[in-house]
Specification:
The chain is of the alpha/beta class. It is built from 17 helices and 17 strands.
């Protein structure tokens, strides 16, 4: 799914109106119907709604939704707040369909009359704003944020810019519990600066021109379930372990064997045919006891990886728990100097590369790096805002012809052609030590099974996050641990098989 910027979304609206020979008012009706259907599917008509509408097109969406819910016998109250000097034509056209005495002015006193059981529908501002909210409108937003009510924003929370919000103070942005976004997410929803303002966002198909969306160019994409399922390859009846690949995991050091175990189990749950683990001698016993399905390759090092790499594997994952000692760094140098294998680079291996940036050029094309933000900062330097961070990410991948998975909420997967995908799965409970080690194992296993690096990166990130989401059915997010992600993978692959 493509992520379009504000001007592209506006052009999509225009193209849709022209192609379907409809009015902007009719497109607004389609958007409001999609919102109505979402609400009706979740709330019965005993639920009260308070609408807060500005006088622009977002307010027009709000008025239309108000009318449609009233037709379904939902109890609704409508408040109007003037935005700008002149209401839009679409707003006025919708306003004429509502009895004048049902439209109340939003005053300070009005806030005290809103029951805290009412759901507030935010139709104040849409995607058209280009500067932070100030004045009376800002006071309205702050008053709404102070209420205990559930808030549903139409298309975008009022005050939030569609893309980047580094110069947009949060005190002028509405905090939504839910955002009903039309057709696709806004880039701002996926970025740390103000993305939390959207709450849980839901994508509603309002019938925008698919031909235009397919042709329009954007570097940003959203990794949906549909896309992930299309990448998954069904197992074949006559496959054997050799067909399912052989993965070498280079991991572990004294005191950090847990990282190796988590990565190994993640790899095995990817469906890889064979797994070998190259680890220091101090880790052999614990690995053989913990992971009987794996084979152990011997390294000269006792407590850390040491010496030279003398193996011949086509797929290697390197980094979980290896440490950053000089001995280990020299071993990493020997490995990078000898192999042209498909690789996943994680954790301490990334930190070693950050200290030895010239070694990055040794990485084979389409090597997959999986840093968290601090590790990525060590590679490329600091950034001032989300926009600069994404630019660093794209430039880094293009310069070295690498794939980089920047972990976090809506993990970003960047490719050498400067395209960037944001993940749709995952939850805050996954922000625990070891979660990234599991991801490394999954992606390495998928590479070994024969998935191209670009596909392994996308499918691995999606499956990792989806496993975490499925675990919330039986686990509290707060108490989720990284091992839970491993057991959840079986259900992820089963889902994919059943959808194929």
């Amino acid at each position: 799914m493509k992520i379009l910027d504000k001007s592209q979304i506006q052009e999509a609206d225009r193209q849709t109106i022209a192609m379907k020979s409809i009015s902007s008012f009719q497109l607004m009706e389609s958007a409001a119907k999609a919102c109505r259907d979402w609400i009706v599917n979740r709330f019965d008509n005993n639920q009260h709604f308070s609408f807060i509408c500005g006088t622009g097109n977002n307010g027009g969406d709000g008025l239309t939704l108000y009318r449609l819910l009233m037709e379904k016998n939902y109890p609704c109250i409508l408040y109007e707040f003037p935005v700008g000097d002149n209401p839009t034509e679409e707003y006025l056209e919708n306003k004429r369909k509502i009895e004048a005495d049902l439209i109340l002015k939003l005053t300070p006193e009005a806030f005290s009359s809103i029951s805290n059981k009412d759901i507030i529908i935010d139709g104040l501002l849409g995607t058209g704003i280009n500067r932070p909210v100030i004045g009376e409108l800002k006071k309205v937003i702050q008053s709404l944020n102070a209420l205990p009510n559930t808030i549903i924003s139409i298309d975008i929370p009022s005050g939030l810019f569609s893309e980047y919000n580094s110069n947009n103070p949060g005190d002028g942005i509405l905090q939504a519990n839910f955002t009903l976004s039309f057709q696709m997410p806004k880039l701002a929803f996926l970025l740390p600066e103000q993305g939390e303002k959207a709450g849980q966002f839901h994508l509603l198909d309002i019938g925008l021109n698919t031909e235009f969306i397919e042709k329009v160019k954007t570097p940003y994409h959203y990794l949906t379930t549909k896309k992930a399922n299309s990448l998954f390859k069904l197992p074949k009846k006559f496959d054997h372990k050799g067909k399912n690949g052989h993965h070498l995991l280079v991991a572990g050091s004294k005191g950090k064997m847990g990282a190796a175990i988590l990565a190994a189990k993640g790899s095995l749950r990817s469906g890889v045919g064979k797994l070998s683990i190259l680890t220091p001698q101090s880790g052999i016993e614990v690995l053989q006891n913990s992971i009987p399905e794996s084979m152990i390759e011997f390294n000269n090092g006792i407590n850390c990886l040491s010496g030279y790499y003398n193996y011949n594997f086509n797929t290697i994952s390197l980094g979980p728990g290896i440490g950053t000692s000089n001995e280990t760094a020299q071993f990493v140098f020997s490995l990078l100097s000898k192999t042209q294998a498909q690789m996943v680079i994680d954790a301490d291996a990334i930190n070693i590369l950050a200290n030895k940036p010239k070694w990055i050029k040794k990485l084979p094309k389409n090597t997959i790096l999986t840093p968290h933000p601090k590790e990525f900062e060590r590679l490329v330097g600091s950034w001032q805002n989300d926009q600069e961070k994404l630019e660093h990410l794209s430039q880094f991948c293009q310069k070295y012809h690498l794939i980089c998975i920047l972990k976090g909420a809506h993990t970003a997967i960047a490719f050498p052609n400067r395209t960037l995908w944001f993940n749709s799965t995952g939850n805050p409970g996954m922000a625990k030590a070891g979660s990234g080690d599991v991801l490394t194992g999954i992606i390495g296993g998928l590479l070994a099974k024969g998935y191209p690096p670009q596909v392994a990166a996308l499918l691995g990130v999606y499956a990792h996050g989806r496993s975490g989401d499925l675990k919330l059915k039986s686990h509290s997010s707060t108490f989720l641990i990284s091992s839970d992600l491993i057991s959840g993978l079986s259900e992820v692959w089963k889902e994919m098989q059943e959808s194929s």
